[in-house]
């Protein structure tokens, strides 16, 4: 089969759990299904969620709480576009409106044409925006972001400090990013995730960057596993994966291992003792 069948064992501290989420339905998705050329329309610049998309977000919100994911996630990483940030704060944000005297909201009322009440930042993980996990860059205005200075008042509790430029300098009107370049960017993003101290992270991003990146993995697995990883994501779909450090690229020390032999004493394995006798 060209794969290595069977199970594998890795030290726990050399793994990291990532919950990958594609954004909910956007207005560009609806138009694009009817006519693919709609993706090139300026009408869908930085597309926001549809009412159905917000229903999908609520369903995901319910799932991450019922499954225990919400309690275990230590960080939410989000692509800096309206549809991904709306999905992220709706699914992983606090309940209801926030008391601004205690904490800024994750999203203000009706942010990005959402027709949605404000979302609290209380009692939820921190949120950080990262450009490496943006959608396929170029040509399609739906994949072009606004300036960061426009986003900040809409999403006050999202950390935008890792984004170097206020304006979108990555998107080009006449050049569509190649699939292999999207995959390379995605793998760089996964390497960045590994540098984070958090062990369980939610990532809210896009179908294109997810599928092109995940198809670069799984060559050492059964073909059905590689096929599973390379399947396109539905709107608001969540899949959990594990990143493994195979090459000593910087795992933190284990927090669960215990050295044993405390207090110190004779500790010769039985087979070794029999050989000595």
Number of strands: 6
| Mean pLDDT score | 90
Number of helices: 9
Order of helices and strands: EHHHEHEHEHEHHEH
Structural class of the helices, strands and pairings? alpha/beta
How do the strands line up in the largest sheet?
Answer: 4-3-2-5-1-6
Given as residue ranges, the uncertain stretches (5+ residues, pLDDT < 50) are none
Distance between the termini: 47 Å
Give the assembly state of these chains. Answer: single chain
Q: What's the gyration radius in Å?
A: 22 Å
Largest sheet: 6 strands, mixed
What share of the residues lie within helices?
Answer: 25-40%
Morphology call = globular
Bin the strand percentage.
5-15%
Give an account of the 3D structure.
It is built from nine helices and six strands, in the order βαααβαβαβαβααβα. The chain has 277 residues and is of the alpha/beta class. A six-stranded mixed sheet has the order 4-3-2-5-1-6. Strand 3 (127-129), helix 5 (148-154) and strand 4 (158-159) form a beta-alpha-beta unit. The radius of gyration is 22 Å and the shape is globular. The mean pLDDT is 90.
Topology:
Layout: E1 15-22, H1 27-34, H2 51-66, H3 69-72, E2 75-78, H4 82-92, E3 127-129, H5 148-154, E4 158-159, H6 179-195, E5 200-205, H7 207-214, H8 223-229, E6 238-244, H9 270-276
Parallel strand pairs: 1-5, 2-3, 2-5, 3-4
Antiparallel strand pairs: 1-6
Helix pairs in contact: 2-4, 6-7
